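Fold in C-alpha cells:
===
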Amino acid sequence: SGDFETRLGLANEKLNSLQEIFDLPAKKRELAEIDKQVQAPDLWDHHEQAQKIMIRQSELREEIQTFETLK
C-alpha cells in the first residue's frame, strides 16, 4: 500500500509539472476567447481567418480534454 501511495504521489507531482508546462489555465482562457469570437455574426465574412479560428478552437478543445482525462 505504501509503495502504491508513493508511486501515486510521484505521478501526481509529474502531472502537476506537466500542467505548468502545458499551462492549462492559459489554454482555457484562449479557448474562452475563441468561443466568443465564433459567436460573432461576421465571423465568416473573412473565410480564411474563420477557418483558422475554428481549427484552433478544435485543437484547444482536444488538448484540454486530453490533459483533463489524464487527471
